[in-house]
Every structure is written in C-alpha cells, then in structure tokens.
Amino acid sequence: MRWIIFHIALMFLTSNEVNAQQIQPTETDTVTIRIVGSMADSRFVPAEIEIRKGDLLKFIVEEGVHTVTAYHPDNRRPIGIPEEAESFDSDILQKGEVWFYQPNVAGEYNYFCRPHERMGHKGKFIVR
Fold first, then answer.
1. N or C: which end of the chain has fewer CB within 10 A?
2. Over the stretch 46-105, which tens digit does the pLDDT of each residue have?
3. Model pTM?
4. What is the 3-state secondary structure (H, E, C) of the chain?
C-alpha cells in the first residue's frame, strides 16, 4: 500500500513540475547599445539590432552629450516607430549616464540623437 501511495505522489509531483515548466514566462535579455563619439563622429553601437519583444535596451553614454529620441510626431518628426508604440525621448544624457527602454510592441523603431541628428547620429532596432 505504501508503494502505491508513494508512486501516486511521485506521479503528481512530476506532472506538476512539467506543467510549471510549461507556463514559465519567456526569459528576457538586456541588450546594451553604446553611445560614443562627439559631433560628426557620434554613433550608436550597434547602429542596428534585432531584439525580442520584452527585451530591455540599455543605452550607455561613453562620450559626449546625447539623447535617444524616437522618430515620432511627439518629437516633431515623422513617425518611425510602430503606431501602437509610445514615443520616447531620454532627454540629455552625459558621459557615464545610462538610459533604459523596454519595447513591448513588435516592429521597426527608428531613433536619433537630437544634438547630432544632422550629422547622421541615428539608430534602429527591430522587435520580433
């Protein structure tokens, strides 16, 4: 009798472990984008990247003064992000500062640095 109870209990625990593994949320990543250079040499590294929905973007300013700003009418630019996504703007970031953004809408996001946009300081990430 003990063996039957033990066997049934073991089957119950094993089936619960399988179910728990099946419903665990997908693990997200933190993806780092470096902001380097100043004036005409300003750039996002990498300039283009593909991530998964829910991944956390970490922008680190290594040199100069920069922003991470969405192409969006809220920022006086044509829309360059998914229509369902919220506009973003980090405000001015200085050397050593970090800014985070977590996109939750799939699509292509185009962004720029306000002080250096005319010098080509732009980036893009694609959320799958």
1. N
2. 999 999 999 999 999 999 999 999 999 999 999 999 999 999 999 999 999 999 999 999
3. 0.77
4. CHHHHHHHHHHHHHHHHHHHHHHCCCCCCEEEEEEECCHHHCEEECCEEEECCCCEEEEEECCCEECCEECCHHHCCCCCCCCCCCCCECCCEECCCEEEECCCCCEEEEEECHHHHHHCCEEEEEEC
Handedness of CA 71, 108, 48, 104 (dihedral sign): positive
Would you say 68 and 93 are in contact if contact means Cβ atoms under 8 Å apart? yes
92 close to 65: Cβ distance less than 8 angstroms: yes
